[in-house]
Amino acid sequence: MRQQRVGAELGMLNNLFKRQMACMAEAEDNITGMQAMIVHHLAVSRQDGDLFQRDIENFFQMRRSTATGILQLMEQHGLLRREPVAHDGRLKRLVLTEQAWALESKIERKLQALEELMRDGIDEEELSVWFRVCGRLRANLERGTMVSEE
Q: CA-based angle 62:67:69, to the nearest 5?
């Protein structure tokens, strides 16, 4: 019997999730699945104070160059603005535009539907174990060094 591999399973789940996110983002809204998740994150986190590019990088575990590219496209498509903050001229807070706010309720509904689809048939105890294992996997990957061929 072939050994199950965590990485292979995560890769397959990631592909399926990305496919669902691509279906969620409609062409007429001119927004990708990742952009939709960023809009939603900025919307629900606004009460916590200003958010900056580094907050997006940390929350979504993405590289600076990736975040820069996504956020620049979002600016070009009129979904957000970068505004300077008084206490540090180098920092630019991320602010959703009216266009993004108009999409937020649709994004919220679609993200909720996707969450319900993923949780279907899984009880709270199983989800608790899932989140605990994911936390350990994340910690292992964050503290580990990249595997290379020798």
A: 135
Map tokens 């969620």 to a residue.
24
Give me Rg for the CA atoms of the chain: 18
**Tens digits of residue pLDDT in 67-114:** 999 999 999 999 999 999 888 878 999 999 999 999 998 999 989 999
Q: Which domains does the chain have, with CATH numbers?
A: 6-143 (1.10.10.10)
Q: pTM surpassing 0.90?
A: no
**SS3 per-residue string spanning the chain:** CCCCCHHHHHHHHHHHHHHHHHHHCCHHHCCCHHHHHHHHHHHHHHHHCCCCHHHHHHHHCCCHHHHHHHHHHHHHCCCEEEEEECCEEEEEEEEECHHHHHHHHHHHHHHHHHHHHHHCCCCHHHHHHHHHHHHHHHHHHHHCCCCCCC
Enter the tokens of residue 43.
Answer: 């919307």
